[in-house]
C-alpha cells in the first residue's frame, strides 16, 4: 500500500512535473516522491516564554520523521501571549488566535497535500490547534505539548 495516499496528487505523473520541481527546490530527491509527506506545525516563537524551547524539539522530530522514511515539511504558526497582552487591546486577539492557528495548520497541510501532521505547541493558545487542525487533516496525527 502506498504511504503517500494524499500527497501523490502532487508527486505522481508527468502532469505534476512543475509540482515536483518546487519540491526539489526544498530538498526532495527522486526517491522521495513515493514517501509520505508529514507536516511539522512548529509553534516556536520568542514572543512568549511558553514556546521558546519548541524549535529544538521540532528539529529532533524532523530528523526522526526522515529516519522513519517519510519527508518532513516544517512550517510555523502564530502565537499570542496572554501575559503580555493582558489589559490591552491585544486581548481581543488572544482567544480568536486559537482558531487562526488551527485554520493556518489545516490550510498549509491541505494546500500542500500532506499525508499527516505533527503539531507541536507550548501554551494554552496552541493546545486547541493540536486537536482542531489534526482532526481535519489526519485524525491519527500526533500532537505534542
Keywords:
Rossmann fold, alpha/beta, four-stranded parallel sheet, 145 residues, 7 helices, elongated, single chain
Q: Could you give a quick summary of the protein structure above?
A:
The protein is an alpha/beta fold and 145 residues long. It has helices spanning 8-11, 17-25, 54-67, 82-85, 91-94, 96-111, 127-137; strands at residues 37-42, 71-76, 116-120, 143-144.
How far do the termini sit from each other? 31 Å
Ranges with pLDDT <50 over ≥5 residues?
none
CATH domain class: Alpha Beta
Helix content: 40-55%
Radius of gyration, in angstroms, nearest whole number: 16 Å
What is the approximate shape? elongated
| CATH architecture identity | 3-Layer(aba) Sandwich
The averaged pLDDT comes out at 87
Structural class call reads: alpha/beta
User: How many structurally independent domains?
Assistant: 1
Query: What is the CATH topology assignment?
Result: Rossmann fold
Q: Please provide the count of β strands.
A: 4
Placed side by side, the strands forming the largest sheet appear as: 2-1-3-4
Strand content: 5-15%
Mind describing the biggest β-sheet? 4 strands, parallel
Could you walk me through the main structural features you see in this protein, from its secondary elements to its overall organization?
The structure is a single chain. The chain is α/β, with parallel strands linked by helices. It has one domain: Rossmann fold. It is built from seven helices and four strands; from the N terminus they run ααβαβαααβαβ. It has a four-stranded parallel β-sheet, with helices on both faces. α6 (96-111) runs parallel beside α7. The mean pLDDT is 87.
